[in-house]
Sequence to fold (870 residues):
Amino acid sequence: MKAVGHNVKRKDGIGKATGRTKYADDLVFPGMLHGRTIRTTIPSGRIRDIRLEFDTTGFTICDHRDIPGRNVVSLIVDDQPCLVDGLVRHVAEPVVLLAHEDRDKLLAAQVTISYDEEAPLFDPIKSETVLKELLIEKGNLERGFASADVVVEGVYRTGHQEHVYIETNGVIAVPERNGIAVYGSIQCPFYVDRALRVMLGPDRYVRVVQTETGGGFGGKEEYPSMLACHATLLAIKSGRPVKIVYDRVEDMLATTKRHPSIVRHKTGLKKDGRITAMDVEVVIDGGAYVTLSPVVLSRGGIHAAGPYRCANTRIHGRAMFTNTPPNGAFRGFGAPQTQFAMEVHMERIAETLGVDPVKLRERNALRPGDLTATGQKLRDDCSALQVLKEAVKRSGYRRKSKKYKGTNRGIGVALFYHGSGFTGSGELKLASRAAVECTERGVRLLVSSTEIGQGTRTMHAQIVADAMGIPYEQVDVAPIDTTIVPDSGPTVASRTCMVVGRILERAARELKERLNGASPADYFAQKGALRVEKQHEPPDWLKWDDDRYRGDAYVTFAWACDVAEVEMDRDTFEVRPIRITAVQDIGRAIHPALATGQIEGGTGQGVGFALIEQVVMKNGAMANSQLTNYTIPTTLDTPEMDVHLVENPYPEGPFGAKGLGELPIDGPAPAIVNAIRSLGIDVREVPATPELIQSAIGSRSRAEAHHDRLTYGAPVAELHLESS
Amino acid sequence: MKLILNGAAIEVEAPPMKRLLDVLREECQLTGTKEGCGEGECGACTVLIDGQPVCACLVPWAHVEGTAVTTIEGLADEHPLPQAFMDQVGAQCGICTPGMILAAVALGPAPSLARIKEGLAGNLCRCTGYEAIYRAIQSVADVRHA
Fold:
């Protein structure tokens, strides 16, 4: 039986559901100490003095002077220190590390830091320090606006979002040989491996092992490198294993979040709704260090024009410095922010022109052969129109739009897409590798792609089984240990199936050929080990210009359309999502149940982003860093979902598969806000909390009093009729 | 202090105000009970005390004297819910799963969808959007009905 396309038994085993699977905090090593991080409490300034106000007997204590190599957490730009050396750029920066075998004594230890404070900067718009800037230009913007009948402008905002993986960040560093072995909850073991080598200096042994990981969503992409460096310093100094597991408050205060965004759109249109010009200004709040902001801005910028055709486009993006903890990777990676703006703007365009919002999208949706904003020519697997039509049909959008008029129910649509794999030349530079080898049982696959709940092990094993033509049960997955597996790149960017799966498919086909008809187990028994390792090969047609942001930004895109139905409480302004219809083209579902789970889960996170998840920042720190007052959707906040998979294969993906993991989070926020807009409430921001909706309704009442002929959603200042 | 833990009468010495969660994980080495938030919001540490689901992070050890405590390890091997959670992808990363399953056990046989949603409202899952969890629980209920 073929494995691909079937809901085969998952490789995770039963342990996750019986409690037997060990996560980082479940591991205990002989002689293990517990570690703790002393952090800054001011957003900007210099440390004047650090006082240890406890009996230090039995403690291991580290600061920046204990770092043998470079004091950086190595990533894109090596600007973030592992431990603060004087200069403070944000609240919750690590300064001093403590370890002790008794957790109560450790927690009781008092460290007082005094500072010379400086004026902090929190507003990314007022910031003058640009972490990254990009410009995407196509056609002639001036000519595009000159040919427009109508110009619609607007500003759209999204807030921070916290990942809330239910397992907080945690690692254990264990002295090994002349260096360290780190076990931890991590998405990208080779990022951690590299950061440790830079921090430790040359010629040190480094081994990184991923423990079963209780959720990531991007939140365990970069921060585990910091955490691993900390535990390693304490372990090397004490000569003993050191475990650091953050509690929820520390995890929320100190680790990364989704970048807040401010996106301004100015769009030229013909009266029939055809877009003639798009001018988009994107600002994201990067926080106090560069970390991943350049690449988040890249993806956000490239997706900022939405899945629409427009001959004259300009997208200008900036990631700005502020004195807040660095914002980082979160599922979607900039695209949820910019596509929120685009899709709410499209709704406002429809309201302004008085055209049907679905027809407006149909008229402008990208088709095969069209060029994106970067000039990328779309291939046959561009299915924007197909997913739009299917979602409108399945959801009963037209019938319900009429039925809900005048009630407290609303319905909204969002059309979106998501580039699969690293942006531009990213995959070429990564040069990821993956391997398969014969074993006594069959075949073992070796990758550094982590299982973080999404089904990596299972899906990769399915691909290898079918490429080899052997039963799925005969495929095993190597443990994620950087001394065992090749570097197949980070587990991010919707690349694990499409990119790494493809390398495995090629390796498996070659292994099959070399076995020359023998079964892998027989070959192993008779001739011994045989291993095939392959490197990623980008398609030969892929062309990308990093400096000009021109060309094939991604090898392909996944396409989707969400229709959201909501109900608003007229007294409390609380919006309850009732139902979301999600139609998503992912090329090929390797494991349909896991794929559906990705879409349902991403949609659920998108609902939280849209309505309830609000990070309250006070003096540069998250003031609500607890699950008591930062709430994520429960069973009662999550709508009924109707997920429909569309399979429009990408010929160069494994069995036609495209990227899947991030796509589903791009749509719910704009679909929900557009549903709220259908109630006549001018919301252009998420989270759309009751307070925000109340103030939008308040401003409508004032606007209606003064301009009662104006359609709501098209404030006069932002609507310019340039010609009739 | 004496109690029934996963069906067996036991005696464990631990500071009376130590969290039940920590005693289970450290003194009893039952690490299937997970800590997600430490303040009773996420339900990852759900255990059953005399059949009622509670957050083990909120319960002092002294409180369970003389009670019957069930952790995920106490579920019989042939219990259908764990396999249903894996088969239906009601478990993705798995960290909320032990607590979620114990909360589901407390629902009794063949709960309605509304009852499932109400009964699991104190258990957060960040991976699934809950739909597959409902499917897992209902698939077991269906089996029992068949």
